[in-house]
Structures are given as structure tokens and as C-alpha cells.
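Note to self: keep these together.
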Amino acid sequence: MFRKYFVFRSDNRAKLAALMCRTYPLALLAGALVWQLPEARGDETRLTVGNPIILPERLPVVRSGVGTPHDYKPCIAKLPSGELLIVAFRGHGLADGKIREDESLFRSLDEGNTWSDAETLSLPGREPYFSMARDGTLFMTAHLTETDIRNRHGYLHSYLHRSNDGGHTWDSTPLLATDVPGAPASAWTHTSRNVLELSNGDLILGVSTPGGNDFLWRSTDGGKTWDRSLKCVFEGIDPQKLWWPFMAETVFWQARNGDLLGIFRVDPKLVPPLPDTETPEAKTDQSERLIVLRSRDGGEHWTLDKPLGSYYGEMYPAILRLADGRLLLTFTVRAERTPLGVHAVLGKETGDGFEFDFHNDRIVIDAKTPTELSSGGGFGPTVQLSDGSLVTAYSYRGEDSATHLEVARWRLNQ
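Structure:
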């Protein structure tokens, strides 16, 4: 997603520069805090665990490369059949400041040991992200930048892609400014990351434009049609400060008691600083942070919940309910601390939500990006296989400065 530079720049050349900064972020900020992890990049066959309490100091892992250089931000899903899918994207610079970004799909029929060559999808959009309903219906959110050659609307907007056959064929729905009541024409339109299936079988999707035009869409027919009427109100959030679509990148979760929780990525200036910290004076959006908001009335009213526990520069959360009942939160460290890359922490499900420990038993799944280089994207949701092992897909920046896709198959014990 592209954020801050749309606020401060107005000419097309500056906007293009902003897009490229978002796609290929700047180097780490000087003076960034360092999260100490000994030998985090030193052993390809072991994951490092920071401050181990329950877990051992090292966990076994098998890594395999996928795709070709410059593939970026993979998302993984496990179909009911056990087949694994990865979707990623890559950009191509064209003439006159235009770009084209294509989505690539990879398949594994042997639990992630080997992967197919890339299948280039005809679907528009970048940062594709999987969600799956209990009946196997596959959803993918994505957004299309205004400089993409396939953008016929002239402004950044989103898509919801839907498949009933494991990603072989897709139906696509554009989400435009005209779909958001009160939004100005050509307003930047963005969705939540995930489509969430609720306990009653309904599906929800967040849709927003800047300035507080935020709606929670609901489907009662498996995502074929959507009720788009529910406007969301966020207590304590000044809509005049929302220069970005507030639902953008949000990950939804339903608590056991029925409450809706959303993990939102926000400009850190929007909320008070984390305890014993000062808000970073960031020059890019890589120092943004996560907050949790709760709705007790089905998504209309939202209030700030207790802190997630994450730090500045940590984003792209994905929650997995493990077979043993614990929760695993996978996320990406993009700035402010090292090592950059995909990390994971364990947590527990409570009656009204979740709790995670970001300090102890912190699992570093990917630490391949050299400290002197900028983030390689990460992204990395995780799935669990029938034997209990875990599979995480991510992108990192190599010594050649290009991004590379990799899959880590790992376990929570030795």
C-alpha cells in the first residue's frame, strides 16, 4: 500500500517517486533501535529464538527458494485438499512513468517441499493477500496503483478476487470511489487485508477512502454479493487526520464472545507513543505501528483496545490458530529494529480476544536482509500442515539488492 507521499506531493513525477519509495523502501533510519539476536543470520538450518522461555534457542528449518529475483511479498494459503498456494507480485518499469505489476501463483502438492514454476495471473493489483472461507472459497485482496498501465480509472483503487476452484479461475470485483458513500470522486480506495468468515458464516470486508469514509461490507452468500451500508465510527480517532484509507491493511479477527477485533496499521502520530518511547521522526511509512480496535456491536462502533505489544516498524500481521490451541502471530519488521524480516510470536486465545508475548520466545523466521539494506518486503503469513510443521513464505533483499522469495518449513520443537 502507498501512503504518505500522496499527502505532501501533488505533481505526477513526485507521485511516481512516492510509489517507488513504497515499493522499494529507503534504507534503515539512522539511530534505529537494535533488537539483539545472536547469530540471527548465521545458520540456514535453524531459526533463532530471542529470549527463549518455553521454546529452545534454535528451531529446525528447511528453506527453499521460489520464483525469480524481484518477486515480492508472497502470501501463502492451504487449500482443504492440502495443496499449498503462494501468490506474489513483481513490477516492471515502462515508458512515460508507467509501470505494470503482475501477480504470480505457485503451487505445491507435497506440503511445500517443491513448488511449481510461476503462473502469471491476469488479475490486476499488487500485494495480493489470501483469505479462505471454511467451504474452501478463496479470496484475494489487492490494489492497483494509478501509474499501472492497466489502471483505467486514473486513481489508486482496490480489487476483491474470488475463486471456487482453488485459484484456477477467478471472478474480480473492482472497489472504486463510487462504491464508498461520501467519498470524493477518484478517492484513494482501499480494503482490509483479509476477508473474515464470522461464526455465523457471514463474511466481512473493510472498505475505506481517506478522511473517515469507512465501511464494513457483509456477505451472507459466500461473497457473491455484499451489503455495503454499514458505516464505521472509531472513538478517539480524528477523521481529519486520516490522510489514508483507515481500513487499509487491517486484519480482522472474531473473539469467542462475538466481538470483532481489528489490527490496524496507523501513522504513529495518530495515537499516543508507546510507553517509554518517543514517536519516531520517520521519513518513510516504514516506521508505522499497529493498534487494536474492538467492536461490540457487529462493526459499527469501534474503541481502542489494549496494546498488541508490537513496536514501531512492525506490520503485516497474520494470526494462525495452531492445532494445539495456541495462536501464532507472524509479522514483518521493516524498520526501527534489526534483524529486518519476518518474525513470529506465540499467544493465547482468550474469551474476548487474544494476547501475544512480543518479548519472550520471539522466533526469527527470516533475517536474510543485510543490515545496511532496506526491507525486502517480508509479508509472510504462516500455515500449518497435518504433521504439525509450519510453512512461512516471505521475500527478503539479497546482497544483490534484489528481492527474492523463499519458503521456510519449520517446527516449534527440536
